[in-house]
Design brief:
CATH class of the largest domain: Alpha Beta
Number of helices: 16
Structural class: alpha/beta
Number of domains: 2
CATH superfamily of the largest domain: Type I PLP-dependent aspartate aminotransferase-like (Major domain)
Distance between the termini: 23 Å
Helix content: 40-55%
Strand content: 15-25%
Bound molecules: pyridoxal-5'-phosphate
Strand order of the largest sheet: 4-12-11-10-9-5-8
């Protein structure tokens, strides 16, 4: 059965109907709201299967968390062994120590680590630490950069450069967050020179894990300006951490932030986040800042993380995933050229970004790809170390058909 047929089966329709009754919009995540909705029952390696057995090649890869693919044997064994030893001790445990030691050994900025339950929480904590360390309130973020869904990082600029907050976030909170454009380094430097900024936070890959690249000279200038003004320099490496290299984007760039925010790959597909940074800053959590959190360093996430970091620590899986992504990018670009469809494929390490010339085609590409049996995340494809030549060939054939479908007005 094709995906198009599968999502119209009775089983899918029934689930979608039940979901609409109990989940707002029938969904659990702002980017899982597309229709027709797919319902996944199982996943392994580079593939996932719908409730009726229909198979898809997966490039959502756990929203980027699964660099080693679905259900990697080392992660599965670690979790299976741990689950019967208990899932929550309500106390310190050896796993949190080992996990933090791994992070300290891999991530340049990491002298100490505090675990959280998600990347969003880790961002909140990093900014809290920066505010306490500096005694200042103002946060600076870059236009279009995404840092999870907390209030403090939600303000954005409109086309005229005015700051807005999304519905539900008071405008007064927006006043404490200054959004800076990435094409105006002088504005960032002038903002920092005022001496009232607690932290500058950015995706060092550029917005949306490299979708909108960021000039390394801008990042270096921001590093220097933070040091000069006493602001805490924060890299959000929730997506890039351990994926673009064992030490993340900071290792690739050779620029070390004061604090890194981590998530996703660090826990091998289980929930977690972490703040990893300078010891003097992190020590504020021991002396001044109370930071609870029921699921901090949860043992199940810890064992999945430890198993994953053991494998990715030497950079081998990243090289494999990067090589696959490079071939896929080349083939997808060739498919666009041979179909005469305007567009480009941008690659950051093992992540591809699809740009189609027409915005309506861009909006349709994910659905068109799913109809061809390939699941991507919005307009991005996360490759893993276990995608195969067969995946590559099928993904190229699927893309060739999907770009035509997406470019054909409905
Ligand atoms: C760069 C970045 N920061 C933070 C987050 C938030 O992480 P989480 O979804 O674990 O809360 C995300 C999530 O995709 C992200 O892409």
């Amino acid at each position: 059965m094709s995906v198009t047929e599968a999502v119209h089966t009775r089983a899918h329709a029934d689930l979608a109907e039940r979901a609409r009754r109990v989940l707002p919009g029938g969904a659990t995540h702002a980017s899982r709201t597309y229709d027709p909705r797919i319902y996944v029952a199982r996943s392994s390696g580079s593939r996932k299967w719908l409730i009726d057995g229909t198979e898809l090649i997966d490039y959502t890869m756990g929203h980027g968390a699964l660099l080693l693919g679905h259900a990697h044997p080392a992660v599965v064994t670690a979790v299976q062994e741990q689950v019967s030893r208990g899932t929550h001790y309500g106390a310190a445990h050896p796993l949190e120590v080992e996990w933090a030691e791994q992070i300290v050994s891999l991530v340049p900025s990491a002298e100490k680590v505090r675990f959280t339950a998600s990347g969003t929480e880790a961002v909140m904590l990093a900014l809290r630490v920066a505010r306490v360390a500096t005694g200042r309130d103002r946060i600076v973020k870059l236009q279009d950069h995404f840092h999870g869904w907390s209030d403090v990082v939600s303000p954005y600029l409109d086309a005229e450069g005015r700051t807005h907050t999304p519905v539900g976030v008071p405008e007064a909170l927006g006043l404490l967050t200054r959004v800076v454009r990435t094409d105006d380094p002088a504005d960032l430097e002038a903002t920092l020179a005022r001496g009232d900024v607690a932290a500058v936070i950015m995706e060092a890959s550029g917005a949306h894990y490299g979708q909108l690249p960021l000039d390394p000279a801008f990042i270096a200038a921001a590093r220097a300006a933070c040091t000069a003004s006493g602001a805490v320099f924060v890299f959000d490496e929730v997506v890039t951490g351990f994926r673009v290299s064992p030490g993340g984007m900071q290792e690739v760039l050779g620029i070390t932030p004061d604090i890194s925010v981590l998530g996703k790959v660090m826990a091998g597909g289980l929930p977690s986040g972490a703040v990893a940074g300078r010891a003097d800053l992190l020590e504020l959590l021991a002396t001044t800042i109370a930071h609870p959190g029921t699921f901090n360093a949860n043992p199940l996430s810890a064992v999945a993380g430890i198993a994953t970091l053991r494998l990715v620590g030497d950079g081998g899986p990243q090289r494999t995933a990067d090589a696959y992504a490079m071939s896929l990018a080349t083939e997808w670009a060739a498919a666009l050229a041979s179909a005469g469809i305007p567009g480009t494929i941008r690659r950051l390490s093992s992540i591809l970004h699809i740009f189609l010339g027409e915005s309506s085609a861009q909006a349709r590409i994910a659905n068109a790809m799913r109809a061809e049996g390939v699941d991507i995340l919005n307009t991005s494809a996360f490759c893993s170390s276990v995608h195969t030549i067969a995946d590559l060939e099928q993904s190229v054939a699927a893309f060739s058909r999907a770009i035509v479908a997406a470019s054909t007005p409905a």
